Amino acid sequence: MKKLNLGVVAHVDAGKTSLTERLLYSTGALAEIGSVDAGSTRTDSLELERERGITIRSAVASFAIGDVSVNLLDTPGHPDFIAEVERVLGVLDGAVLVISAVEGVQPQTVVLMRALQRLRVPTLMFVNKIDRGGADADRVLAGIADRLTSAVVAMGSVTGLGSRDALFQPYRSEDAGFAARLLDLLSSDDDALLAAYVEDEAAVSYGRLRSALAQRVGRGRVHPVFFGSAITGAGVAELLAGIAELLPAGDGDVDGPLSGTVFKIERGRAGEKVAYVRLFSGSLRVRDRLQLRGRREKVTGIGVFTPGGVLPRSSVGAGEIAQLLGLVGVRIGDPVGVPPASVGSRQFAPPTLETVVVPVDPAAKGALHAALAQLAEQDPLIGLRQDDLRGELSVSLYGEVQKEVVQATLAREFGVEVSFRETTVICIERLVGCGSAFEIIDVAPNPFLATVGLRVEPAPVGSGVLFRLEVELGSMPYAFMRAVEETVHLTLRQGLYGWQVPDCLVVLTHSGYWPRQSHAHAIFDKSMSSTAGDFRNLTPLVLMEALRRAGTRVYEPVHTFSLELPADSYGTVSPVLAQLRAVPLAPRPQGRVYLLDGTIPAARVHELQQRLPGLTGGEGVLESAFSHYALADGCPSRPRTDADRLDRVGYLLRVQRRV
Length: 659
Ligand code: GDP
Hints:
alpha+beta, six-stranded antiparallel beta sheet, binds guanosine-5'-diphosphate, seven-stranded mixed beta sheet, 17 helices
């Protein structure tokens, strides 16, 4: 049986949830059709999503189209979750991009299409809501060509547009115009097809065109467009046929080396981890052992998705998606076996905001910490920062809506009610030049039994913290080297202004220690012997001094935005953009709206979002995503969680108290 892992993606409200329901119902996987408006759909599993009517977390449902077995992966639609969307897109064989026939292409549609193209996901388009007043097929097609891609072909026409009786009429082989359009589109980069056509037009059969179309769709080069309604069911049978015919099966070599990726983690009833994995190659059996984050872990159970629900199985193979049980240390994004090429090379945008989480009941602090640690541990997209000095916990965020998700998850899954402080932006620090410093063992003012010398140098953006040795590897016990390196990474989480220094070369230039010594009665004498603790305590002092000599500057995150607004509101919006330090490019008129692209500091995105409805009579649509870091005005600093790192005396006093 052919297998297909499919995703439905859409701008919020385009009808993704309703279409998912309709697909499950039409193929018999659901006996009754749920309704988003009544809050009874199957794929929206979180109560919060029901209340908000938006789908946030992905879930898997399964159905069959003839001999094709389809796993449908629900993907989040809100822009705050684009990183999560991309994580799911990376494991798909194909996607259906839903576009509303009334609202047309929306900014989030553009963002999603770009992600699909970047990841080369074969994608069909479904223009939904043809039954609703205001639906306009031609306008949507023009919008697709203008803003998404020109490599599209409408697979049929619509009758009764804008009424309950609207129907989709697929084009057939007899439709000469359709065959000509297909040929035109497909022969542009298919020389064989073009040559055959030039030789003898009639010799290029409709069947050949269809298979050329499937081939091109499979490579993500051409996008067929279907029309229909998730509510009336119009066009859904044709979409299903298109999915089976035009999207490529999720194959892979079952006998090849094991390779897969974990794209989601859930907690089972007893709190155990359930890992969702996509296998690209090889196969996996219950009781197999996997190497995960340096630990060997045993798969104690495998579940696969069937139209009736999750079924236990003894093995799973390439091309499939499964639930794995028993993997205690697993995290989202972990590779299973050999890391798949397509997944490892992807980089997610960093979160640019953070907020302090406060338990409503002060006594729940411990429970809150445990809960947040658990969330962060299974999902690398949730960043946790602990400030022992102030007894505070902060989480990093991609957008304001994520606060509500964190709040609801904490309340529902952990019984902890929380509120948030004001959201602030996360800056970074970059080195201005090079700097070095050292302290020698037994030479004042060094109170530690260790010699450490470090040089810091600027490193290219995205290169991370690199640690190199300019001393002989054998000059010091490995444990001491490790202590220095680990402490370097920890210390660089807070540079001179309290922000992380993400890219930097750190060179160990001096090292020295006193070997383990003992008196005649053979008791270890700490006052004469270096320990890893000496290196852990000394390294921050040396590194901060080297940083001070190199100098750092603070950079703030900047987003690119695209703004769609009624032409007559441009005059009102423009000065507000300037106030918010946005830098727009020239507006592009499109019909009665203006499209405006540009950049804006991440710190001001939310304010723009909030003021936009008032400025545009509710018609402005804003989309933004992280772009880069730019030098921030006036070096904003962040309160340190290690207040005394920059104050030698205070630092030494604290270390001594601890020792
Ligand atoms: P999602 O946010 O993309 O998951 O969209 P939903 O499925 O929640 O749909 C958003 C709203 O549009 C709901 O009120 C649906 O009832 C409505 N809707 C979805 N599809 C259609 C359709 O084909 N026709 C009409 N008339 N309404 C639709």
